[in-house]
């Protein structure tokens, strides 16, 4: 029996803090909710209890006062102090009425996209139990997909919300970098990490964004342009390519559409730049600790950490130039307002459990060529449920201009509705 895990529940939850908030946090939240309820009775428009009754699962990288953030590695966890405050994102959702369920499994120090953790195990993907769930926000994704929670709070650095959302057949959002405060949250690579979350429907995904960003739901504009990046088509599995061609035909009946000509994007070059810059930032923050505790990591994370500390300044400078080029290229795509990229989130479905390390790593590298687009430029991206192949889900994504999270959410919901009507 794995003593780190809460039994059952698809292996999604860690045992620490499951089922009940520390008393002090619960008291603070109850007082805030009572104050907002009282304010609502006086002036209903001031009510912010928009998440009442929604069950909240939280990736074990967020501080919760009185608990210890484990970050997927027991050796790391043992050296962390008990949190003296609660992370902004967690506190805000609780104060909007969300109901605490517990903390969820994450890959070690979040440095993986597989959802496989040598210490905690692999949460069971309810959408396709024979396949991996994807990481590093694996537990939160599985908790939502299995119905154990309604909101799954996580983080996305290189795809840790978008990829597991696709693999598990649910909604997920990576907001604009910096749009949601990361206070009280473990970050792997500071210029890439964002707070993100999962839900089973687009309306709740939007409600969570509105609560965290102090925003309001956006009405879909009359004219919306959706773009297909031609450079990504060759990355897709042949079955995905065929299915997406049909999707784009359907969307052309609802939206203005265009094809981003070949060489508009450079996914392979961009992905390599992303890997270098991410690794350099990881080495900067965690390299010394990792080298002292290499034996505490699973083989895949250990190898990644060892490689990260070898990145040199010449590589970083070259990668930064590529990143600047990518930012300029993507800004040009979104020069005209209400323009969005629509694409499959990933090239293919999740690898099977038990697939070789080589196979899993190959899937990771291919996926990064699609995930790095929003990551390098800090753009908002929403994964929405789309279709399945061999009984396993694959998601569709909407990417928009930096800061246009509200528009991306509105378009993603409209795309989902348009595809649902065409079935």
TrEMBL record:
It comes from the Bacteria. Residues 31-409 form the Amidase domain. NCBIfam families: PRK08310.1 (NF006169). PANTHER family: AMIDASE 1. This is Amidase. It comes from Paraburkholderia rhizosphaerae. The lineage of its organism: Bacteria, Pseudomonadati, Pseudomonadota, Betaproteobacteria, Burkholderiales.
């Amino acid at each position: 029996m794995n003593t780190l895990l809460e039994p059952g529940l698809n292996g999604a939850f860690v045992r620490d803090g499951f089922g009940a908030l520390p008393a002090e946090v619960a008291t603070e939240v109850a007082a805030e909710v009572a104050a907002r309820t009282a304010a609502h009775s006086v002036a209903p428009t001031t009510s912010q209890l928009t998440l009442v009754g929604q069950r909240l699962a939280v990736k074990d990288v967020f501080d919760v006062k009185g608990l210890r953030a484990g970050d997927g590695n027991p050796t790391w966890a043992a050296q962390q102090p008990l949190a003296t405050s609660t992370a902004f994102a967690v506190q805000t959702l609780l104060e909007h009425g969300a109901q605490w369920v517990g903390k969820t499994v994450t890959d070690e120090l979040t440095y993986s996209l597989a959802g496989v953790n040598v210490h905690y195990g692999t949460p069971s993907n309810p959408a396709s139990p024979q396949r991996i769930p994807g990481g590093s926000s694996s537990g939160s994704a599985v908790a939502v997909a299995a119905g154990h929670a309604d909101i799954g709070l996580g983080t996305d650095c290189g795809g840790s919300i978008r990829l597991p959302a696709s693999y598990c057949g649910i909604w997920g959002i990576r907001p604009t970098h910096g749009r949601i405060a990361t206070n009280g949250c473990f970050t792997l690579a500071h210029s890439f990490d964002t707070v993100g979350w999962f839900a089973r429907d687009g309306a709740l995904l939007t409600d969570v964004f509105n609560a965290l960003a102090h925003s309001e739901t956006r009405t879909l504009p009359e004219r919306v342009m959706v773009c297909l990046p031609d450079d990504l088509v060759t990355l897709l599995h042949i079955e995905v390519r065929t299915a997406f061609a049909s999707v784009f035909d359907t969307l052309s009946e609802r939206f203005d559409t265009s094809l981003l000509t070949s060489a508009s994007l450079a996914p392979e070059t961009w992905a390599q730049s992303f890997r270098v810059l991410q690794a350099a930032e990881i080495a900067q923050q965690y390299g010394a600790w990792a080298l002292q505790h290499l034996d505490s990591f699973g083989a895949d994370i250990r190898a990644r950490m060892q490689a990260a500390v070898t990145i040199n300044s010449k590589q970083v400078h070259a990668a930064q130039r590529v990143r600047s080029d990518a930012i300029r290229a993507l800004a040009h795509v979104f020069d005209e307002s209400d323009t969005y990229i629509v694409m499959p989130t990933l090239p293919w479905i999740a690898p099977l459990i038990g697939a070789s390390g080589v196979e899993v790593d190959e899937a990771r590298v291919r996926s990064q060529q699609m995930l790095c687009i929003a990551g390098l430029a800090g753009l908002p991206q929403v994964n929405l449920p789309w279709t399945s192949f061999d009984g396993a889900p694959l998601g569709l994504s909407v990417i928009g201009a930096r800061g246009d999270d509200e528009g991306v959410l509105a378009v993603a919901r409209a795309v989902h509705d348009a595809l649902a009507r065409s079935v």
